[in-house]
Structure formats: structure tokens, C-alpha cells
Write a structure and sequence with these properties.
The complex is a heterodimer of chains A (286) and B (155). With 286 residues, chain A is an alpha+beta fold. Chain A has a 5-stranded antiparallel sheet. Chain A has a 4-stranded antiparallel sheet with strand order 11-12-13-14, sandwiched between helices. In chain A, strands 1-3-2 form a 3-stranded parallel sheet, covered by helices on one side. Chain B is an alpha+beta fold. Chain B folds into 2 domains: 75 residues, Ubiquitin-like (UB roll); 69 residues, Orthogonal Bundle (DNA polymerase, domain 1), CATH 1.10.150. The chains are: A alpha+beta (286), B alpha+beta (155). The interface between A and B is medium-sized, with 27 and 27 residues.
Chain lengths: 286, 155
């Protein structure tokens, strides 16, 4: 196995394109190195992207945020403007692993590892995040929900790498939230994760995005759950409808962390709690 | 193989390492710094926590080659001239260990936590220690030791 640490994105693309064996991009390495240690992943080439300056920064502009692919979740957690605009996204990123893991891991790595239980992914999808992909043929931008195609699988083609995640500006009457359920509070894998982003108009929900993690092969957007909230003040009845829609959308597996039946029920419970937080944030930001 | 040069516990060291060698393997096998422990294969347990450029890291979640040019501090580098670091002394004083296997990682995490957070309460200490697992489940005295060290280091 070869290790390379290029300093430009062009070199990354060149290395990935040229490699005939199995090439992997190394961002934080908190999934990749563990997979290698366990013998589940046997790369021929590792391309470390932590030495590329453009991938190490969070940029703010008039249109929103651009999170470089090598920005650690701890760095994201210290970014004041991100915390203010997208607290749900930041909280999700700071639920990955533990403190020491967050010092290494990245949201782009979390996305590309394509675990159905990835914590940052439902929050990113709820926020309307997009991934900027670079390859030999240039750049393309696609919605985050279209990256993972199944457990451990992404739509990235050979030689392609995600350069950054972009997020729009959050409007003044919007708020997001992410909650997950795990048996332990850290270093555990989500039984259910829920990302919700709400926009209010005259005190009523006018727009909603509800995304579930760990209950299907990929994170799923649940339009019926969003509809349950739209036009309401997130009252008891709306929350009941939200919970029912979330549970109905679940297609989970049974595993040691939770049975399919349990996950289905908990998805509704967590959605209700996350919706209350998002609603409060949307209201208080106005 | 790659040649690397870094500082470990203040000393300049060099090594020729396999591209896929983990930092923890380099520390233990090449430098014989076996105070840094390996308790799992999955970055869960925290026994291998060291400081890289001043920040706590699980040294199994980083390649040795990625530490090229870095300053690494391990448990062996904490005591100065045979005098225990205040966190080490507090673990001894408050019996913050049972079998001791997790202790190097616990102490390295605690030193980092005390540096970052000026006012530590028990709940914060427990939250910050969640990346470190003690299989003897002796957390009570560990928390007491961290609190005592934090208070002492504040002066």
C-alpha cells in the first residue's frame, strides 16, 4: 500500500484516476483506518487530503457556507457562524464518535463512508446541503441525499472526490435540529437519527424537511412527515401525525442495538423531540 | 516505506515506517514507548490517546506517516525530572485506577480537557471522558482525580 499527501485537488484527482488498484481518499481516517485494521478494507493507495489548504477551511459568503472536505468535526463545532446558522448540523457533527474522534473525523468522510446510521447526513439533507464533486472531467454539484446509494456505496465514479459541502444561508424564521438515539451517549452508532429543518411564516410552519437515519439502507427524506407539520404550530395533533408518518416510512433492520420494531417506534419519538427544538429555534431567531 | 521525522516527548526521532503503520504501532514497537496502550481495534476504547501538536488524539486513528513533522506527547513525557504531572499525582492520590490499563489514555485525555476547559464540573468531566473506557468501571475515582487536578492546576 502506498500513502500520498498531495497539496492540490488536481493532484488528488490525478492520483485517483491513475491508480489501477483500490484507491481510497483519507480525510479523518476514523472509519478507513479502522476498516484497514480489521482487514475489511485493503487499499493499494491512500490519498490524504488534509494537506490541501482549500479543503481545510469553512468559508462564509453571501450565498451561505462552504465546508472543505478535510475540515474536522471539532473545527466545525468551533465555527461560530455555522453554530448560529445551522445548530442542528453542528450538533450532528459533534455526535460522531467521541471528542478525540471529532478531532480527526470530517462530515464529508461521514457522508462518503455511506453508513445508513451516519449522524451528520440526515442533518445535512434536512438543511438542503449540496456536495461539490471534482473529477477528471471537472466539477459537478449534487444534493447530499443523492450521494449514498446503499450501505457503504456512493454514486462517486472512479477518480472523483468530494471537495466540499455547501449549505445555504439559514433564513431568520428558520431553525434546524438533529437528535439521535444510542444506547451509550458517545462512541456508539445511531439506532435512529432525525434531522429536521423548519421555516415559519406568521408563526405557522411554512416549509419543513424531515430526514431519518439508521432506519433504511440510506438516510431517507419523509415528505409525509413534513406535510404533517406544514400549516401548524407544531401542536399535539401535528406531532402525532409527524410521529406516525416517520414510523410508517421506516424500513429498518434488526441488530444488537435495536429491533426493527423498536427502531420504527423510536423514529416517531425522536422526530417529535427534534421538531419541538427546530420549532423553538425557528421562532426565537425571528 | 517512508522516512519520517518528528518530536516525541521533546526528543527528535526519525523512523522508516510502512505506509500503513499506525502512529500507536510506531510509538510502541519502534520507539518502545509502551505506556501508550492498545485496548481495541476500533478506535473505541481511548487507551491509546496521545497529544499530537497539543491536542488529544487516539493514536490508532492516525497513520505514523501523518505525524511526520508533528510534536507528539505520550504518557512517558508527562513527568518532568521524575516529578509526576499534577494529573498523574491526582490519579495516584485519589486512586483513579484499578487495573491501570486505561490509565495512560485517561490521563492524556484529562490533561487536554483541563487545558481546554477552565471550570470543570463532574458532569463535564464525565462527558469529556466518554471516549475513554475503563473496563473495571472505576469511573468515580477517575472523576474525583480529574476534578482535584483541575482545581490544583488553576492554583
Amino acid at each position: 500500500m502506498r500513502y500520498e499527501s498531495p497539496t492540490t485537488i488536481k493532484e488528488v484527482v490525478g492520483l485517483l484516476k491513475k491508480e489501477r488498484g483500490k484507491a481510497f481518499v483519507l480525510a479523518g481516517g476514523t472509519d478507513l483506518l479502522v476498516g484497514m485494521k480489521l482487514g475489511m478494507i485493503e487499499p493499494d493507495l491512500l490519498v490524504d487530503i488534509k494537506h490541501i489548504p482549500a479543503m481545510r477551511t469553512v468559508k462564509t459568503s453571501k450565498t451561505g457556507f462552504r465546508i472543505g472536505a478535510a475540515v474536522s468535526c471539532a473545527e466545525l463545532g468551533e465555527h461560530k457562524a455555522m453554530k448560529k446558522a445551522w445548530p442542528g448540523v453542528v450538533e450532528a457533527a459533534n455526535l460522531i464518535g467521541s471528542d478525540q474522534v471529532q478531532g480527526r473525523c470530517t462530515v464529508v468522510g461521514n457522508l462518503c463512508n455511506a453508513s445508513p446510521a451516519a449522524d451528520s447526513v440526515p442533518a445535512l439533507i434536512a438543511a438542503g446541503a449540496k456536495a461539490v464533486i471534482v473529477g477528471a472531467d471537472g466539477r459537478r454539484t449534487i444534493a447530499v441525499e443523492n450521494i449514498a446509494t446503499g450501505p457503504g456505496k456512493t454514486c462517486l465514479k472512479k477518480g472523483e472526490v468530494i471537495e466540499a459541502i455547501t449549505l445555504p444561508n439559514q433564513t431568520k424564521t428558520s431553525g434546524d435540529a438533529y437528535l439521535r438515539f444510542t444506547p451509550r451517549t458517545e462512541m456508539d452508532i445511531a439506532v435512529v437519527g432525525v434531522g429536521i429543518n423548519l421555516t415559519l411564516e406568521k408563526g405557522l410552519v411554512s416549509k419543513a424537511r424531515v430526514v431519518l437515519g439508521a432506519v433504511a439502507p440510506t438516510a431517507i427524506t419523509v415528505p409525509e412527515a413534513a406535510e404533517a407539520l406544514i400549516g401548524t404550530k407544531v401542536d399535539k395533533k401535528a406531532l402525532e401525525n409527524l410521529a406516525a408518518a416517520c414510523s410508517a416510512a421506516c424500513r429498518p433492520i434488526d441488530d444488537k442495538r435495536g429491533s426493527a420494531e423498536y427502531r420504527t417506534r423510536i423514529a416517531g419519538v425522536m422526530a417529535v423531540r427534534a421538531a419541538k427544538i427546530a420549532f423553538k429555534r425557528a421562532g426565537s431567531a425571528a | 516505506m517512508v522516512s519520517i521525522a518528528l518530536k516525541v516527548n521533546g526528543n527528535a526521532v526519525t523512523g522508516d515506517v510502512d505506509d500503513r503503520m499506525l502512529l500507536v504501532e510506531f510509538l510502541r514497537n519502534d520507539l518502545n514507548l509502551t505506556g501508550t496502550h492498545v485496548g481495541c481495534d476500533t478506535s473505541q476504547c481511548g487507551a491509546c490517546v496521545v497529544h499530537v501538536d497539543g491536542e488529544a488524539m487516539k493514536s490508532c486513528s492516525m497513520l505514523a506517516v501523518q505525524a511526520d513533522g508533528a510534536e507528539v506527547l505520550t504518557i512517558e513525557g508527562l513527568a518532568v525530572d521524575g516529578k509526576l504531572h499534577p494529573v498523574q499525582a491526582a490519579f495516584q492520590e485519589h486512586h483513579g485506577l484499578q487495573c491501570g490499563f486505561c490509565t495512560p489514555g485517561m490521563i492524556m485525555t484529562s490533561v487536554d480537557m483541563i487545558r481546554r476547559i477552565p471550570d470543570l464540573d463532574d458532569a463535564t468531566i464525565r462527558s469529556e471522558l466518554e471516549g475513554n473506557i475503563c473496563r473495571c468501571t472505576g469511573y468515580q475515582n477517575i472523576v474525583t482525580a480529574v476534578k482535584a487536578a483541575s482545581d490544583e492546576m488553576k492554583g
